[in-house]
Amino acid sequence: MNASVLHDVPIIGHYTLAARQNFSDFFAEPLRDQIVAFAMLDKNNTGFLTKTELAEALRLMGKSDREIQEAVNSVPGEVDFDRFRELLRPKSQPYTKNVGFVPVPNLRKAHEVPMFGALTKGTESLVTSWVSTAALVFHTPSDTDLMETFRDLDKDGDGELDKEEVAEGLRAHGTQETEIKRVMDDLGDSSATFEEFKTALHKTKRGSLPPIIPSVPFTRGAN
């Protein structure tokens, strides 16, 4: 069994992943594997990966769903190879950070303390996950919100979104990468109309809930 599946176990997985990251020097992937994964997804040879391509590259490297989600959440957009490598082996945190012009202790530095860091980072990850889940449960975008997202992404105005645009739209409304992957697989080489995009979003919202949170009808706020 691939040990990375432990990282997707509810609650416990936050701490097993944090422990792995706490000892990242012992689990570093060979540079050759990193180059191959990046090149396979950079099909247009642009030197950059979109968030969707980044997620797929990490899957090729055997990363857990939780690792993939954390990586995608941590980047604002496309990543080059250097940033890709950094995601696989994060740089050391500084001891201080600036709040305005005032330097204050960087509490995340504690994540790098052997053993203790696995506890602090795992707890931070768990709390963040619960907050995200609460946002999914208590907020459903209206049809007006979804149409605005759809039009923003439909750059050529043909009334359809390609796969990358669908993925971007789903992320904009909090959809998890595991659910986005399912939508991408279902789409194949097809594009999506607004109704198909809306249907996919509501389905993925249910699927994005962790096993310990019951699914609820996502109808509030719909027009």
From TrEMBL:
<dbReference type="InterPro" id="IPR011992">
    <property type="entry name" value="EF-hand-dom_pair"/>
</dbReference>
<dbReference type="InterPro" id="IPR052591">
    <property type="entry name" value="CML21-like"/>
</dbReference>
<dbReference type="GO" id="GO:0005509">
    <property type="term" value="F:calcium ion binding"/>
</dbReference>
<protein>
    <recommendedName>
        <fullName>EF-hand domain-containing protein</fullName>
    </recommendedName>
</protein>
<feature type="domain" description="EF-hand">
    <location>
        <begin position="141"/>
        <end position="176"/>
    </location>
</feature>
<dbReference type="InterPro" id="IPR018247">
    <property type="entry name" value="EF_Hand_1_Ca_BS"/>
</dbReference>
<keyword id="KW-0106">Calcium</keyword>
<dbReference type="Pfam" id="PF13405">
    <property type="entry name" value="EF-hand_6"/>
</dbReference>
<dbReference type="InterPro" id="IPR002048">
    <property type="entry name" value="EF_hand_dom"/>
</dbReference>
<feature type="domain" description="EF-hand">
    <location>
        <begin position="29"/>
        <end position="64"/>
    </location>
</feature>
